Amino acid sequence: MVYVKLVFWGTFWVLIAAFFHYTLPQHDIARITDTYEKRVDFGENSIFWSSPDVGSATDTINRDVFFIQAFRTNDKPMIYRNEDTGWGWPPYFKFDTSNLQAEAADLISKKNAANAQWVVIKHYGWRNEFMSIFPNAISVRAVDSPDVRIIPWLNIFILTVFAAFCWGIRVRWKRFRRNKVDPLVDDYTDGWG
After folding, report:
1. Other Cβ atoms within 10 Å of 173 Cβ, number
2. Which pLDDT value is given to residue 52?
3. Per UniProt, which keywords does this protein have (predicted)?
4. Is 69 in the same domain as 106?
5. CA-based, 20 to 30 A from 30: which of 15, 120, 122, 147?
6. 141 forms bridges with which residues in the sheet?
7. How many domains does the chain have?
8. Average pLDDT rounded to a whole number, residues 83-92
9. What pLDDT, on a 0 to 100 scale, did the predictor assign at position 59?
């Protein structure tokens, strides 16, 4: 029974960690090399794509999606999709896909340029080449060098509040169990003796 409990709680916390890792904003320092638009037919990986833009038809099986191609500081390529999140989940309330595409196109930089333009791309989601999953870019801003330090204050705040919430539930559950459940179990088991 101990193993079942360990597997259950281990699976539960891995799913919670995956949820936060996918949903919370991440920052990549990169050099944008291209921006483009591509017609996408949604398949089994459709849960990783945002819903259609606000004001667009919602029952389409394909649509045009903006993409941003970049190279990170380790010279590995990274492709970002650029879709509105609208009023849906995750709650980034992103409605400026076209503006972000224009900003990204304006920051294109070549590898061998004398002054390569580095940017911070704020995004959420994962990149999985096998399933054709792309992180969704939320914002792009220019930085002076690839050595800039970014402190994810929002992530720290959200995870701290979540940890406090979980701690509060645990404390209340232990108190409830000690005051209400354990005395009933003791009374019941004392009747056997």
Report:
1. 11
2. 56
3. Membrane, Transmembrane, Transmembrane helix
4. yes
5. 15
6. 120
7. 2
8. 85
9. 56
